[in-house]
Amino acid sequence: MSDLDATTPRVFLARHGETEWTKNGRYTGITDLELTPAGVRQVAATGAQLVGPSKLIDSARIARVLVSPRKRAQQTFRLLFSGSDCDSDIADKVALTEDIAEWDYGDYEGLVVREIRARRKEKGLDREREWNIWRDGSARQVAERLDRLIAQIREIQAPYMNGEKPVEVVLVAHGLILRAFVKRWLKYPLDSPLPMMLSPGAIGILSYKNHDVDEPGFFIGMALPSGSQG
Predict the structure, then answer these.
(1) Which of 176, 222, 226 is nearest to 11 (CA)?
(2) Mean pLDDT in runs of 10 for the chain (230 residues)?
């Protein structure tokens, strides 16, 4: 990493591992599924490669870990930080929060997009344009809670934009809410077109340009640490 990358605070986005419903794209909001065996292996592999002393996510550099209360997210958190050193370093920095829980899909829980659109078509809806979760879901309420969370994170990180103190933040949550978080981090409306993918068990990275809290950005690629960081 460049010196700029190494010292500017970052936010790591950790998506939970595979569940039975992620395998076929079902919307999973309040349904409390656990990870599949493949999902456990996904997250364990991510943790082994990226989490630990002098790795991408170093618990000694973390200020807060915010975890969705859903079982699949809590299980993912435990697998990511399963090392004994990580457990002791972050125990008092972890909080469960509904602010990063997945969207409540209501009647569309457990359905895939084509099923939702077919149901709405049967009811005579969406004659002029197809249903879109970013526009037609509970976007306003989601944006409000994400904006609140982002304000809290920036309050933590703003005083240390030049690396005076390590204040990394980790979010452990779900596919759609984390992509929504990226949009709001970048100050985009939720219905703005920004195609994104975040695989189960994957890690995304947000930060700031030019050490400036008013210039939020995201990494499209990042070199892994080669050794200890100052």
Answers:
(1) 222
(2) 68 95 82 92 94 90 95 95 69 92 79 83 80 74 92 96 94 95 95 89 95 94 66
**Token representation of residue 203:** 């890690």
Helix, strand or coil, per DSSP, at residue 218: strand
Let me know if 221 is exposed, middle or buried by CB neighbors in 10 A (0-12, 13-18, 19+): exposed
Q: Looking only at Cα atoms, what is the longest distance across the chain? A: 61
φ, ψ of residue 193 to 5 degrees: the values are -75, 110
Q: Which of 144, 162, 150 is nearest to 3 (CA)?
A: 162
Show Cβ contacts of residue 141 under 8 Å, excluding neighbours closer than 6 positions. none
**Residue 216 β-bridge partners:** 208
Structure tokens at 173: 């949550």
Q: Which residue has the tokens 């690396």?
A: 163
